[in-house]
Amino acid sequence: MTYAAHGLPLFDSGLPETTDPKKILIACETSGIVRNAFLARGHDAWSVDVLPSEDKSNRHIIGDARDHLNEGWDFLMVAHPPCTRLCNSGVRWLHKPPEGRTKSEMWEELEEAANLFAAFLHAPIDRICIENPVMHKHAKARIRDYREFSQSIQPWQFGHGEVKRTCLWLKNLPKLKPTKIVDGREARIHRMPPSADRWKERSRFFTGIAEAMALQWG
Question: What's the total number of domains in the chain?
Fold first, then answer.
């Protein structure tokens, strides 16, 4: 299967192509999972991150996503802005930093993450979805004009037998509907052992959720 306008090879998601293609920015994504789900439906989708794309796609921009928010996008999907300092599971490091780090560094990183999240939350784009884990109170207090998430979802609602609560902040988009509820409920991500790539694997998006977004929102 190819994206006809660019002749790019894509995975076959089984999704029907849209008759109303949109210009879509997938921010903070290196895996290409969400970008490819929208591409497979015929959208003009691009991913952007400070790191290269894992699939070496020529539809990936290396850079700060904030520099590309004013380029006429119809839809902004933020696949996973850095959440290490924002999420509940990481709040302990603000008070007792990991070895080799200082408390001052932890709070500076929290400020940076909060500013990035706010830039996406208030981006000049009509339709927005940001996904992140549940946030702690210090993060909420630092995000400009913070508002609570619109819904929370689980991978097992979209064909993956795993537990990983994900919150969605939505603007002008309907709540995502489950597509395939399965058994399993394995906390694979939570039990993942330490490694050099652990941060990347913990933030990797689920293909079933990406395809649901492309089908229901695209």
Answer: 1
